[in-house]
TrEMBL record:
CDD domains, per the entry: DNA_BRE_C
Ranges of compositional bias, category Polar residues: 446-456
Source organism (scientific name): Bifidobacterium thermacidophilum
Family under the similarity heading: Belongs to the 'phage' integrase family.
Name of the protein in question: Tyrosine-type recombinase/integrase
Keywords: DNA integration, DNA recombination, DNA-binding
InterPro entries referenced in this protein's UniProt entry, alphabetically: DNA_brk_join_enz, Integrase-like_cat_sf, Integrase_catalytic, Integrase_recombinase_N, Integrase_SAM-like_N, Tyrosine_recombinase_XerCD
UniProt cross-references to Pfam families, sorted A to Z: Phage_int_SAM_3, Phage_integrase
Signal sequence annotation: none
Start and end residues of each stretch annotated as Disordered: 402-469
UniProt KW Cell inner membrane keyword: no
Keyword Acyltransferase: no
Ranges of Low complexity composition bias in the record: 435-445
Length: 523
């Protein structure tokens, strides 16, 4: 019988082998190209490249060799890679492709840090965790990160019923901010095991805008704060002073409830904010609990000054309601622990405010607004308000204090408006104190105003532009003596004609803010 002749291949070889159980398979291999050893010198390349896995017939083995031959023939500049490098890249692809949104979000939450490298506060983690649990994980938790597209993000966005649910827009915007932060990290930060980022580009393309605040800030008057404090004291003696701590010193309610005897320096009239109540997530119970932590920011942990009458309130409270130890809580529970914000609101604050006309919609945090607005109405500069409220930036103060007392606004507007009395009467023809010539022969200023041409007030202090310039100069001078926030409020409430005459003489910042406010109101 003639011996079967072995088929000779021009590239590589295929060898028949058997598993331990006797099953036959074929191993295809070929010599590693000589140029590969220098190109991948960091790898310990074998002398031969073997097909990943094993073929059960020669057809598959021959096909693999044919494909490899074409790649090797292209040389060092081709797309050939060592088999071991391909296996490594495949494992990385599997690692990248196997990461779901829920898994990455947990890793992101555990490793988050601030821009300065410090870990984010536990309270911030709790807020992110609530958004994930309530709005993000239910929709996209099981989706792979690489599969989340702008279309999927849009579908998630559309699940919020903002038309019929008044709270949906705010919840959606807050959750979207967390989603954007997560996807930004996935795009820009390396992921363990893949030597690169998890996704190529963030799928968050929606240009969201923060919806209008659902709660309109209420500023409490001194009379209202007095009534609120009395009503709270009727429910629990000593708790009423919190209305003054928030409404005049500007502390947050969490900072107020975390005060201790040692934080009050009666000798120097200073209150030290050293801690605040913090909401944290309990891994054991799966619930959010209240603990005592550090203030919101480094700037928040700062001294707050108070005057002699506030000192009298503190003196009486410390004497009658606080234990003598320096670490004794100012507002303890019956068990001697810190009072939670929920207990404070439900047991004392909310029942008391319902008895005070005008404070039905007053929130504990409105006290902080009230304190800032009260300071500004009494002549404090934005920088002083920034220090008293312990903001990190004065721009935050301007944005934060978006309201002033309505009565104060009207008083300022009236004082400014009174300066225009003579000019307005003359324009209307009611002023009989002018000389006869002034009534019969209009001045160049009044002529240009009648013709619709803006009146120049380039030199209001000296009245260089005529009689109206002198009057307007007095208005401008008085406006300049006020803070920019009050200037903006007054100018927005002026009629268009008067505003057009006064505005050019004020700073560019005031002009820009007035125009922005007018546009906002128009929209």
């Amino acid at each position: 019988m003639a011996r079967q002749r072995r088929h000779r291949r021009k590239f590589g070889k295929v060898e028949a082998r058997r598993y331990k159980d006797g099953t036959k398979y074929y191993d295809a291999s070929y010599p590693t190209p000589s140029w590969a050893f220098s190109k991948w010198s960091e790898l310990d390349l074998p002398t031969r490249q073997h097909m990943p896995g094993f073929a059960t017939d020669t057809t598959r083995a021959d096909g693999w060799l044919a494909d490899e031959y074409e790649k090797v023939k292209a040389g060092p500049d081709g797309d050939w890679k060592p088999v071991q490098l391909r296996k490594l890249e495949a494992r990385k692809r599997d690692a990248r492709n196997g990461v779901t949104f829920a898994a990455y979000a947990q890793t992101w939450l555990d490793t988050r840090r601030k821009a300065n490298g410090e870990p984010i506060k536990e309270s911030s983690k709790t807020k992110h965790r609530e958004k994930l649990r309530n709005h993000l994980i239910p929709f996209s938790g099981g989706i792979r990160m690489v599969d989340i597209t702008p279309k999927i993000v849009q579908e998630w966005w559309d699940t919020f019923n903002t038309k019929h649910d008044p709270h949906a827009a705010g919840a959606r915007n807050a959750a979207y901010e967390t989603l954007k932060a997560i996807m930004h990290s996935a795009e820009n930060e390396t992921y363990p095991g893949i030597d690169g980022t998890l996704i190529i580009k963030s799928p968050c393309r929606i240009k969201s805008t923060r919806p209008a605040k659902r709660h309109k800030t209420v500023n409490a008057s001194t009379e209202q704060l007095t009534a609120l404090a009395d009503a709270m004291d009727a429910l629990r003696p000593g708790i009423g002073i919190t209305a003054w701590i928030t409404g005049r010193l500007g502390l947050r309610i969490g900072e107020t409830l975390a005060l201790q005897r040692g934080d009050i320096d009666m000798e120097h009239g200073v209150l030290y904010v050293r801690r605040t109540l913090t909401q944290v997530y309990d891994d054991k119970t799966g619930k959010t609990i209240t603990t005592v932590g550090t203030p919101k920011t480094k700037d928040s942990a700062a001294p707050v000054q108070f005057g002699e009458h506030m000192a009298k309130l503190f003196e009486a409270h410390l004497r009658d309601h606080v234990a003598p130890q320096p670490d004794a809580w100012l507002f303890p529970t019956k068990r001697g622990t810190t009072m939670t914000e929920a207990n404070y609101r439900d047991r004392y604050f909310n029942p008391a405010k319902k008895t005070v006309p005008g404070l039905e919609d007053y929130w504990p945090h409105d006290g902080r607004h009230t304190a800032g607005a009260y300071l500004m109405e009494h002549g404090a500069s934005p920088n002083m308000v920034k220090q008293q409220l312990r903001h990190s930036d004065v721009t935050m103060t301007n944005k934060y204090l978006d309201t002033t007392g309505e009565q104060h606004r009207r008083e300022v507007i009236k004082r400014v408006d009174d300066e225009l009395a003579g000019y307005a009467d003359r324009r209307r023809g009611d002023d009989t104190t002018d000389t006869p010539d002034a009534q019969d022969t209009p001045s160049p200023t009044s002529m240009s105003a009648s013709a619709g041409t803006p009146v120049s007030v380039s030199d209001p202090a000296t009245g260089a532009d005529g009689e109206s310039g002198g009057k307007l100069g007095m208005v401008v001078a008085q406006l300049r003596s006020l803070s920019e926030d009050v200037q903006v409020s007054v100018l927005v409430d002026m009629d268009d004609d008067r505003r057009g005459r006064v505005l050019p003489s004020l700073s560019k910042d005031v002009q820009a803010r007035v125009m922005a406010e007018l546009i906002r109101k128009a929209v």
